[in-house]
Amino acid sequence: MGTKKITLCHKRNDCIGCGSCAMLSPDRFSMNIQDGKADMKDGQWHGDEFVVAKIDEDEYDLNKQAAAACPVGIIRLD
Ligand code: SF4
Is 49 part of a structural domain of the chain? Predict the structure, then answer.
């Protein structure tokens, strides 16, 4: 445990602020009260479109659920 080998990617600009990811994976996603979009904790911007974080294997399942629930399909795990 503890090795961060999974990449979580959020195409933040396309977020429609439904809140599903923050509900399913609250340790990683929260809703931004300024613009209503999801923020990824410890995420770093890669260019203008994507916020990316390395996550632990024990976070995989919840974030996979978040990715599956996202209505615009902008959360990816690799
Ligand atoms: S589930 Fe998708 S659209 Fe909904 S808040 Fe999260 S990233 Fe945004």
Answer: yes
- Give the position of tokens 């410890």: 42
Phi, psi of 40 (to 5 degrees): -95, 125
What is the rounded average pLDDT for all residues in the chain?
96
- Residue 64 placed within a domain: yes
CA–centroid distance, 5 to ligand 1, in Å, is 23
Nearest CA to ligand 1 atom 2: 70
Of ligand 1's listed atoms, the one at least distance from the Cα of 16 is 3
d(CA 20, CA 46): 23
Q: 34 C-alpha to center of ligand 1: Å?
A: 15
User: Which pTM was predicted?
Assistant: 0.93
Q: Is residue 20 part of a domain?
A: yes
Tens-digit pLDDT profile for residues 12-44? 999 999 999 999 999 999 999 999 999 999 999
